[in-house]
Every structure is written in structure tokens, then in C-alpha cells.
Amino acid sequence: MTEAVSRKFRDIAEFSRIEHTLFALPFAFMGVVLAAGGVPSWALVFWVFLGLVGGRAASLMINDLVDAPLDAENPRTEDRPIPSGRIGRREAYLYIALASLVLFYSAWQINLTAFVLSPIILVNAWVYPYVKRYSAASHLVLGLNGSYAPIGGWIAVRATDMHPWLYLSSLEYWPSVLLGAALVFWYAGFDVIYSLQDVEVDREMDLKSVPSVYGVETARKVAAVSHAVMVVFLASVTWWTAVAGFEWRVLAAGVVVGAVLLGFEHLVAERDTDLAFFYVNAVVSAVLFVAVVGAVVL
Prior knowledge:
mainly alpha
């Protein structure tokens, strides 16, 4: 019984892919720290963390649920929990509902604007897997889902005690949008790199990734340009920190280190996708988070 329970927890962890939260979590807290101009209350940190975990888990599970028939035809993904039968579709819907409730309840605890906007995350998550059946722009749609992390973190701090429409119409949150735009192109770039593994399978199933539509060499260039655009948006955030009176040089140093790491990611991507996709990107997000905290605290 103990082994069966342990195996089920491993299946759920694999289905929700909690480790992917490592990509988005530092950016959510970047939004929080920049909006607060320092360290916010621990209660707010807790609810932002819980909401992000719920939102990311629900989004990733939705993707796997929609893509289960396709994953079953791909040797690389056929052993995922739903295609392999370790998690049934009804069970999957239950886990998605629970993760969504965690997102909604956490957003409600934060403020009304966060709660009103929280369903956008799930709508985006449902749209993404269908877009890649028709357009290579799906990489950007995935990036859009990731961009909500810093924007949500900012809103968690700044939208308290204000009607959602009044807050949104104020455009006060525009610095977080710059950071969110950086994430759109960061996600898009590394998703293009990741999809290099499935070029032939995607073509057989008529899935529209950049590599399957435009070829491997063009895909590498698109990924590189995407990450260059990310660096440009990060530079614009650095400019904003200078205007806001923070120690912008610390963030600038972090952006430079992040850019070097992204360059390394492109160098090793062909030889080791896991190193490029999981580890390098986790380090990039951690470096930028430390740089943002340093810029604000100093």
C-alpha cells in the first residue's frame, strides 16, 4: 500500500511538473519586490507563491490533458502519466480543478484585481495546445502564459483597495509589463529549442512548431533572436530601475550574466537538451531574481 501511494504521488508530481515552477517563481517575486520597493509581508509572499504553484500546475496539466492523444504517438512522450494510463482523464480533471481552486483562492486572498484576472491564466493554458495545431506562433502563446508571473506579482502589491477596472485603466503596472514581455520571448526561445527534439514527429502529426515548419537552422536563429529581444526588454526594466532610484547597476550586471548564460544555452542545446532547457534556464531566472533584489535593497 505504501509503495502504491508513493507511486501515485510521483505520478501526480510528474503530471503537474512542479519543477517547471522554478522558471516562473523568481519572476513572480521580481514583480513583487519591484512593486514593493523592498521586501513585502510574508503573508503576501505566501499567497503569491501558492497562487503561482496552483496556476502553473493547472496550466501544465491542462496542456498534457489536451495533448494526451498526440503524446501517445510520440516515443519521447508516450510514457507521460495520461498516455501511459497511470492517470485517467477523470482523475486528471480532478487534479486540474484542485490546482485551479488553489489559484483562485490565493488570488482572492491577495486582492480583487488579482482574483478577477486569475482566470486568464487558465484560458491561455487551454488555448495554447490548440494553437500549435495551426500556427508556429504557439511558442509566443506559451510565453504569454509565463508573462503573467511578474505582472501578477506586481498587481499583488499595487492593486490593493482599488477597483479592478480603475487599476487596469491607470496603466500604473507598465514596468511589470516590460518584465512580462521579456518572459514572452524567453519562453518562446527556449520552447523553440526544446521542440528541436520533435521535428520529425511534429511533421508527421502536422503540428506547427518553428522547427517543423521552417527547418532546424531557421529555428535556431529564431530562438537566438527571441532571447536577444528578451535581453532588450530586460534592459528597459533596468532603465526603469534607474529612473525609480534603485541601484540599477546591480540589475545591469545580472542582465549581462543572464545574456551570457543564454548564449551558453544555445551552444549546448544541440548536445544536451536537458542541460539547456532545465538547468540553464533555472540558473538564468535565479540570477535575475538575485539581481533585482540586490538593486532594490541596495
